[in-house]
Amino acid sequence: MNRPTEESAPAYIDTSKASIARVYDYAIGGKDNYEIDREIVELVRKLAPEASQAALDNRAFLIRVARYLATRTPITQFLDCGSGLPTAENTHQVVQRLRPEAKVVYVDNDPTVIAHGQALLEDSERTIFSSADIRKPDAVLGDPATAAFLDLDQPVALFHVSTLHHFADSDEPARVMAEYIDRLPVGSAVVIAHFFDPENEDTALARRLEEILSRSPMGSGYFRTLAQLESFFAGLEMLEPGIVPCYRWWPDGPQLDPEQPMQRCVAGGVGFKR
Ligand code: SAM
Prior knowledge:
One of its GO terms (molecular function) is methyltransferase activity. Keywords: Methyltransferase, Transferase. This is SAM-dependent methyltransferase. Its EC number is 2.1.1.-. It is an enzyme of class 2 (transferase). By secondary structure, this protein is α/β, with parallel strands linked by helices. The chain has a single domain, classed as Rossmann fold, CATH 3.40.50.150. It is built from ten helices and eight strands. It has helices at residues 20-27, 35-47, 51-72, 91-98, 111-121, 137-142, 144-149, 173-183, 203-215, 226-231; strands at 77-81, 103-107, 127-130, 157-161, 189-195, 237-238, 244-245, 266-272. Strand 4, helix 8 and strand 5 form a beta-alpha-beta unit. Helix 1 crosses helix 2 and helix 2 runs antiparallel to helix 9 (203-215). The longest helix has 22 residues, at 51-72. It binds S-adenosylmethionine. S-adenosylmethionine binds next to helix 1 and helix 3.
């Protein structure tokens, strides 16, 4: 695999600092990452060898939800907050294959993602990229390019997949989501996946992983409870089966391998504004 090296890294990338986007990229098998990013995943793997499977479950959840929304709802506008580095199947490829008229806005402020995101856009005029800070709904929805590209009076699918667990409590994730939801028109969908503390025998693992991630050079990775995750969907009508471990959300088929503990510590759900 052709990985970039610290020496060959472009000047806009600081390879002495871990990046959430690059750590995740390594976890799901990508090549856009550096030693400092890989070390974090390896630390997690010592405790949970299934870390990559849990990250892949999260990505597969995003793809299944994108497919569902593109085929089963009238939504044609997708706002993918914290979209991450381009991977095998990106949101615009999934939804535009099924609904060619769908428009997709990717939002991410990581320098590597910004560089790759712009390159990725060249394959579709119905896809744009914004470098807004996703902690600020005003900045995301008010970005002039996004506001001109999307019709914010028509339903939007807002994705916050594996983003809010990088918000500290002081970033007030529930308030931020309430602000997004308040500004979205009726008919919109909100998609969230998040590190999860199931408040059972898996709690010890969740708490230990939280400690490792928040003390790592990445600096964040909070495992929140069902009540906390529900608060991010406040006022929305949840789609069945509600908030569940990502691999259990309308899977493509039966789980063939035995489930591993960390797979139960990443949960997702979809809510609609009615
Ligand atoms: N959503 C993708 C997925 O689940 O497959 C990628 C998730 S990745 C773990 C989280 C992404 O959120 C990273 O690419 C990171 O750069 C981005 N991100 C984190 N905080 C952000 C912020 N304040 N503004 C914009 N992007 C942010």
